[in-house]
Amino acid sequence: MEVRQTVEIRVRGTVQGVGFRPTVWRLACDEGLVGEVFNDGFGVLIRTTGNSGAISQFLTRLHSEAPPLSQIEDVETQVLHLLDFEDFRIAESVSGENCTRVTPDAAICAACRAEVLDPKERRYGYPFANCTHCGPRFSIVKEVPYDRVNTTMADFPMCASCTSEYQQPADRRFHAQPIACPTCGPSIWLERMDTNAPAAHLRANEALHSAIELLKNGAVVAIRGLGGFHLACDATNPEAVQRLRQRKHRYGKPFALMARDLDTIRRYCNVTPAEADLLQSPEAPIVLLLANGLEKLPEGIAPGLNTVGFMLPYTPLHLLITRQIDRPLVMTSGNISDEPQVTSLDTARTGLRGIADAMLMHDREIANRIDDSVVRFVSGRPSVMRRARGYAPSAVPLPPGFTGAPDLLAFGGELKATFCVVKDGAAILSQHQGDLEDVSTFEDYQKNLQLYSRIYDHRPRLLVADMHPEYLSAKLAKQRAAADNLPLLEVQHHHAHIASCMVENGVALDAPPVLGIAIDGLGFGDDGTIWGGEFLLADYRGYRRMAAFKPVAMVGGVQAIREPWRNTYAHLVAGLGWAQFVEKFSALELYRYLITKPLPTIDRMLETGLNVPLASSCGRLFDAVAAALGLCADHALFEGQGAMELEALAEPWGPSATEPPYTFTITGQANSEMLYLDSLPMWEDLLDDLSRQTPVARMSGRFHYGLARAIRDMVARIRATIAAGESLNTIALSGGCFQNKILLEELVRLLEADGLSCLLHAKVPTNDGGLALGQAAIAAARHIERSNPAYLRSNASPI
Hints:
Elements: E1 4-14, H1 20-30, E2 34-40, E3 43-51, H2 52-64, E4 71-80, E5 88-90, H3 110-116, H4 160-167, E6 188-192, E7 201-203, H5 204-216, E8 221-224, E9 229-234, H6 238-248, E10 256-258, H7 262-266, H8 273-279, E11 286-290, E12 307-311, H9 316-322, E13 329-333, H10 345-351, E14 358-362, E15 374-378, E16 381-386, E17 395-397, E18 408-410, E19 420-423, E20 426-429, H11 439-455, E21 462-466, H12 472-484, E22 488-491, H13 493-504, E23 514-524, E24 530-538, E25 543-549, E26 552-553, H14 559-562, H15 565-575, H16 578-585, H17 589-594, H18 599-608, E27 614-617, H19 618-628, H20 641-650, E28 665-668, E29 675-678, H21 680-691, H22 696-721, E30 730-734, H23 741-753, E31 757-759, H24 771-787, H25 789-795
Parallel strand pairs: 2-5, 8-14, 10-12, 11-15, 18-21, 21-22, 23-30, 24-27, 25-29, 30-31
Antiparallel strand pairs: 1-3, 1-4, 2-3, 6-7, 6-14, 8-9, 9-13, 10-13, 11-12, 15-16, 17-20, 18-19, 19-20, 23-24, 24-25, 26-27, 28-29
Helix pairs in contact: 1-2, 13-24, 15-19, 19-20, 20-22, 21-22, 22-23, 24-25
């Protein structure tokens, strides 16, 4: 027999600003329930009265019919004394400590898209249409709860028509905080940079039409978008592309592209069904695609590469621009070089004046800068390379065992910086910030730290930073720890990489160790040297360094990153020795190139140990090989350029019986368990290939597949040497070098053929953008271990 009762239902997760309350209202009315629902600092709270069976059915449907942008993390139900309600209503939000999530911005939904393109609709042609299923969220929020008054839409009072929609629970715009229309919402205008005449400032349809004509005619147009400005031009116009590169001082890094639809993209790329789905998803990221279509783009779009990054229009404004242009547009960040993307009108007018011919402006302020996300399909699934719009700041669930995690703040690394807030057992990874070496980026990073502290009411009990003493993020963490009298934990760079991969794959706190392979450019080792090609037996609490790439000098320190030929020379000297190289290979162009460099000075540096730190860096190995093959040897225009061009060359090639992959050897040291991966045999084979004038693409392929086999062989050697009784069947792969699709896919194939399970990154970057998550997990694990003696006795780390 059913009993009439009142229950209180607490829903936590991403449940504000996604149409959750109207969904609750609709479901409650369907089931004949009465009561109320409202937002508060903890999420959504529901109090409802009805028959027990109806309440049970309501709870079931709450999960199965949740709004598409919501993410339910927890639902708690408790029975209250019977309460009488007249009907079911949506009540006002309640302020208080914030424990809920801020929702990422979402691409325009199908309903709003159809509305904007329908002449019969009142929002026809309106650049800011949105509803509870799409539109701005994080980019406009200032405070929580997520109500209009706490967003930049507070500057636009709703008209009567919008108010009516906003107040109707059955309307898809019910409590859509950015709701707007041409009568009451934001507007656009165009400013020409070549004149100050009033006639140059066009509004609404005239502005849009003029911007489109400028783009068609080869101009560069700055467009104020969702999380910042873009710089746009015709991607099929080589002169326009080159003009944008020169003005922006972006001489080699690839440009992102936007096309009006999939058919346009398919002219340049063969798009798989999975890639098409991702392009059309609410996240709408830039997707890296093989440029293998029938039509070709100018070389200046992605110099030296065989991939291009495409995205579809994700706001009504972008939709209205691209639908009238039947070719792709460059849609790159509105900034100079590697500075942060411009967000404000005044900064754009000064900072972008020398770049853009015109600016398409709007008056909805951008509260929070957020870049476009970048995703690539690797091993059959999407892998986020830059986590920003559409993904951040959604929470990453912590695995089983982390219930006792303290509130903490992890500061991340130096490049591709992010930070991570842990609160109430959830890890909130910030959006991509950029490289902190840039003053403006570091200022933006500090601003975002304050923002997250405010919107999440976050008061950390513990701070976490990288071990590198010169990272600006680490220095800031030390200052904060001293100022707030908080404990600071320093975490080794590559341990953090592996831990971030473990978290993303749900590895429990008390799980047995994994063998982590972390390969990247560099990270500070716990022995004070530079690491970058590491094999770590690791769990969350600790690690043991089992093997590494054989260390080679970084000639000139960071200068070796900027001038890749330095790495080539260092590898040749460390392996063959310069005298043997000259004796055997003086006929090579590589020799004639290297002797133009200041080799006597470098030899003295190597002899004295002056500014030539040893580094077990996989990234520097890629640089050395790329430079030896003639790829950006003198100067790298951006981080990873040589490796990216090397991968692009190798794409058509694979190992064969007649031309096997290059070989590496595994060496050891007396009185040490450490093993080293030695590249000397690879260099001998590569130099022989150069002497035979073997095609560069073939050499690149032999290098990639040889490196994958060498890493697999090292894994087998380590597994054979670990203590009897320890099973080691799980391999975690992390670090920036695993952005290389050929290397990662071939290594996964080899390891899985050996019966091993591989953990890969998907929603958290494998590069340094994922470091903060790993730092947070390590700090939480060690806190739990220290604060729970019983746990310590039964689950002590075996490492």
